[in-house]
Design brief:
The chain has 87 residues and is of the alpha+beta class. The protein contains three helices and three strands, in the order αβββαα. It has one domain.
Length: 87
């Protein structure tokens, strides 16, 4: 599976889990900020640094989504394998 397809499937999975995903420019923040998952007003969000490589964004999405229960959702087998890989 191509990198862009993996990225898109992970974004779609986050949407199924009701997690907002956005890409932000962290360079303008003026202090150190890292991509990852957070909760804002009771809603889960994954915020990605738009300057990161696609592979880095995929790694962040995988690490963020691993914590959520996926048993009741259809997940493309290749994506499910990525989510189950050891850290």
């Amino acid at each position: 599976m191509k990198t862009d397809q993996i990225y898109q499937h992970l974004i779609e999975l986050a949407e199924k889990l009701d997690i907002d995903v956005s890409e932000q420019n962290f360079k303008i923040s003026g202090f150190p900020v890292h991509s990852g998952i957070c909760r804002v007003k009771g809603k889960d969000r994954i915020i990605l640094d738009k300057h990161k490589s696609k592979n880095d964004k995929i790694d962040i999405l995988i690490e963020s989504l691993k914590a959520f229960p996926l048993d009741d959702l259809y997940v493309v087998p290749a994506i499910r394998d990525l989510l189950k890989r050891p850290e």
